[in-house]
Amino acid sequence: MAGLTLKNVIKRFGALQVIHGADLEIEDGEFVVFVGPSGCGKSTLLRMIAGLEDVSGGEIAIAGTVVNDVEPSERHIAMVFQSYALYPHMTVRKNLSFGLTMNGNPKADTERRVAHAADILQIGELMDRRPGQLSGGQRQRVAIGRAIVREPQVFLFDEPLSNLDAELRVQMRVEISKLHKQLGTTMIYVTHDQTEAMTLADKIVVLRSGRIEQVGAPLDLYDDPANQFVAGFVGSPKMNFLKARIDAVSADGATAVLASDPGVKITLPISGRPDVGSSVTLGIRPEHFVDAGAGDADLTVDVDVAEHLGHTSYVYAAVSGEPLIIERPESRHAGSQDRLTVGVPSRRCFLFDAEGQRLR
Amino acid sequence: MISKSRSLLMRRLALHAALTPLAIIWLFPLWMMFVFSTMSDYGIFSPDIVLVPSTKFIENFLNLQADTDFLRAMFISITVAVIYTILSVMLTSMAGWALARYRFAGRSVVIAIILGTITLPFAVVVIPQFIMVAREFKLANTWVALIVPPLFNSLGVLFMRQAFSMMPSELFDAARVEGVKEWRIFLHIALPLARPTMAALSIILFLASWNNYLWPLLINSKPGMMTAPVALGTLIGLTKVSWGGIMAGAVLLTAPILFVFIFLQRHFISGITAGAVK
Amino acid sequence: MRLNNRIAYAFLAPYLLIFATFWLWPIISSFLISFQNTRVNPWRFAPSMNWGRLVGDPAFYNALYNTLIILVIQVPVMIALATVMAVFLNSPLLKARPLYRFAFFAPVVVGEVAYAAVFRLMFSADFGIINKIIGTVGLSPVSWFDNGTAAMALVIMAVTWRWAGYNAIIILAGLQSIPGDVYEAATLDRVGKVQQFFHITLPLLKPIILFCIVLSVIGTMQLFAEPFLITNRGGPGGATETLGLLLYRQGFTSLNFGYASAIAYTIAALAVAISLLNLFFGREAK
C-alpha cells in the first residue's frame, strides 16, 4: 500500500499542452476520484500515473519513490479500463493469471491469488468462460479481478462503469466501494459522472482543461465550492446561475440585485468587498429554494414544464428569459400554474465574480 | 397486390435470363479445361464438338510427365508457396504491428515509402532484381531465389497494420501494466486476435506464390528447379507436345486452388477487398 | 503510445531489410541502369543511349500503341461488366446465388499459364472449339492467331475473362457497404430501380470503381503472360506485342538491361500518370 505525490506534473502532445502543472497529495488507503468533463485531462493524468503516457514535466512519486522513468509493470499498480480490456481469446481463468504467468510467478501462488480474487468477486462459476460469453457486469468483475490478482499498492480505474446500464452501474458502484473497505488499498478512480464521484470518493479532484480546480471531500465541494465551475459540476440537477449586480456593500456583507428581476435583493454574509455596481453571478441549488415568504426574498418565475418523479418534482422555469430549475419536494401540483413564487434563503446562495471565482 | 408480385416475378425472370448466359460463358473455359484433360489428343483434334468429359486423364498425365518432370515441379511449387506464405505472414505482421502500435523516429517516413511505392508495377524492379539475384548473389535456380525476393510484397504490412490498429489499445495497455513484455504482447494477445486477418492474408499470398509466373520463369529456368506454371509454360507453343497432357497439367494447377476457393471463399474475398473497402 | 525506437525497429527490421534489398534499391537501381550502356563489359555511363533509342524505336511505339489499345478497350468493358455482375449478384431476387458467384469469381484463382493454355486450345484455328461453334451457325472460322485484329481481340477477351470477377468482388463489397435504408428512402420517394442505380448506386460506388480502374491500368501496363503464351510471343508479327513483352524481350532475350530498364521506367511512369489522371478527373466531376 502506498500514497502518491504529484508535483507540477505537465503533459504535452507535441505542441499541445494538456496538463498544466498538477499538484496533488494522495494518502495511503485513500479513495480518490478524478472528475471533470470529457477532455479535461483526467484520463491522461491517470495514464501518466500508470506509466502508459510519458511525463513531460514535473514528478510523480508512488510510496515516496519518483516513478517518472519506471516501467508500468514496476510501479506496483493495477488498472481497470473503460472497455475492460479483457483478452477476448482467453478464458476468465487465463485472463486473471496471464500477467502473473508471463512474469514467471510460481504456479501455486498464481492459483491461490486467482482463487482469492474469484472468491472476493464471486465469479467462481465463470472461470472457464470467455469474455464474449459474459454480461457487461460479469466482464466488469473479471476486469477488477485481474487487478486484484496483482495485489497492487494502488488501484487505478479509468471510467470503469461507463459501459454499463444505469441499474448495474449503481450495483457495481456499491461493490467497488465495498471492495475498497475490504482491501483498504489506495484507489484512484476517473469518471465524468459527478454522482459516482460523490458516492465513492474520500477525496474528489475536480479537473477542467488540464487544471485542478479544487480538491476536497465530496460534501465540502458541495457546500463550499471554490468557483463557479465546481459549483456547477457538483450536484444534480446543477446549480442555477443568475446574472446579478452588487447593489451595496456593508458590514453585514454584500447585497446583490438580480438582473432579471430588480425587485429581488439578497444580502450575503461575505467578508470580501466587491465593487458596487460590478457584475456578479448568483448561484443557488434547485433543492435550496423554500416556500414563498420563508426565505430572505421572494422570486416569481414563469413555469415552462414540471417533472413529477414521485418523491420530488422539478420545475423548469425562467425569470425574464433566464432559465432555472426549482426542486419542490412532496409537491405534485408545483408548476401546474403559469407562475410560481418561491423563497430564496440567502445563507444557501453563492456569489461568483465575472471570472467565476467565488466571492467569500 | 397481384400486380406487385407479378412485376416482381418478371424482374426475377429477366435477371436470371440475363445472368445465366453470362455465367455459362464464364464457366465454359474452366469446363473445357477439364474436358480436354480427359480427352486423347486425337479426340481434341477431331472435327466434332465434344462437351462432355472422356476417360483419358491418367494417360494424359503420363504424357505430360514424359514431356517434363511435372511431379517435381508441383512439389517445388507447393513447397515454395507454403514457405513463402509462412515467412511473409511472419515478416509483414511484425512490421504491421510496429507501424500500428509504436511511436518511433522515422515512422511516418517508413509508412510514406511503403504507401508511395505500393502501386508501382513489378516491371520496374524486375531487371535489377534479376541482376542482383542471378549475377551478384549467384542464386539462380535455387529455392532461395524463388522464396526470398518476393517477400518484399508490402500488401501484408498494410493489411496487418490495419488489423492491429483496429484492436482497442486498452487491451495492450492492460498487459503492459501487468508487466508483459512487448514481444509476448504481440505473440500472445495481438497475433491470436488477428487470426482472421492472417487467414485471409495467407490465402492471398499462397495464391500469388502458386500462380507466380514471370519471376520463377526468369530466375529458375533450369529443368528440375522449375515451378509448375513455368514447367507447363515451356510446353505451350512446342510443336510435338501432348495437348491433353498440358490440359491435365492445367487442371492439376487449378483444381486444388479452386477447391480451396469454394470452401474458403469468405477469406479470399476479404483478402481481395482489403485494399479497397475500408 | 509511448516512444519506443528500439522495440519498434526490432519488429520492423526483418521486413525492412527485405523491402530495401528487393524493392527500394531495385527501384533506384533500375533508374540508374537505364542510363548505362549495358552492351559493353564493364557497363559505361551513356545517358542518352537507351532513352535516345526509345524515342526513335518503332518496336517501342508498336508496343505502346498495342498496350494503349488494350487499355482503352479492355478496361472500360471489364469494369462495366464487373459492375453489372456485382449489381446482379447483390440483387435480393437472385436464386442459386453461390452458383453464379462461383462462375464469376472462379477465374480469379486460375493461374496465367493454365488459362492461357486453355484459351490457346479453345481458339485454335483448325480444331478449336470456338471456331467449331462459330461454324455451326454458318459463319466462317476466324484465324485467331494469324489475324492481328483477331489476336488482339483474343487477348482482350482473355484478360477480361480472368479479371472481371476480381473487380466484381471489390465492387460487390462496395455495394454491400451502402446502407439499405438509402434505397428504402428512395423507394418511398417513388424513385425507380434504374434511376436508383444511376443516381444512388453509381455515385456512391465511384471511389471503388476508380480504385478498380487504377488497379487495372497498372496491371494492363505490364501485361505479359497473355500475349506471351496465348498469342505466341506477341504474334502475329508483333500485333499483340505489349510493353511488358518488349521489356521481357529486351531484358531477357537480348540481355540488354539498360534499354529494358528504360522501358520499365516508361511503363511505371505511364501507369502512375494514367492512374493520377483518373483520380484527378474522378475527383473533378464530383
Task: Describe the protein in words.
The complex is a heterotrimer of chains A (360), B (278) and C (286). Chain A has 360 residues and is of the alpha+beta class. In chain A, 24% of the residues lie in helices and 35% in strands. Chain A is built from eight helices and 21 strands. In chain A, the strands form four sheets. Chain A has a six-stranded mixed β-sheet, sandwiched between helices. Chain A has a six-stranded antiparallel β-sheet with strand order 13-12-11-14-20-21. In chain A, helix 3 (107-121) crosses helix 4 (136-149). Chain A is elongated, with a radius of gyration of 24 Å. Chain A starts with a strand and ends with a strand. With 278 residues, chain B is mostly helical. Chain B has two domains: 2-59, no CATH class; 68-235, MetI-like fold. Chain B is 74% helix and 0% strand. Chain B has helices at 2-37, 41-44, 57-67, 70-101, 107-117, 123-136, 143-147, 155-166, 169-177, 182-193, 195-211, 214-219, 228-235, 243-263, 265-273. Chain B is globular. Chain C contains twelve helices and two strands; from the N terminus they run αββααααααααααα. The longest helix of chain C is centred in the first third of the chain and has 32 residues, at 58-89. Chain C has helices at 5-33, 49-56, 58-89, 97-105, 112-122, 129-136, 148-176, 180-188, 193-221, 225-229, 243-253, 257-284, and strands spanning 36-37, 44-45. In chain C, helix 2 crosses helix 12 (257-284), helix 7 (148-176) packs across helix 9 (193-221) and helix 9 runs antiparallel to helix 12 (257-284). Chain C is an all-alpha fold. Chain C has one domain: MetI-like (MetI-like fold), CATH 1.10.3720.10. The A-B interface holds A 47, 50-52, 71-74, 77-79, 81-83, 85, 87-89, 98-100, 102-103, 146, 150 and B 168, 170-171, 173-181, 184, 188-189, 192-193.
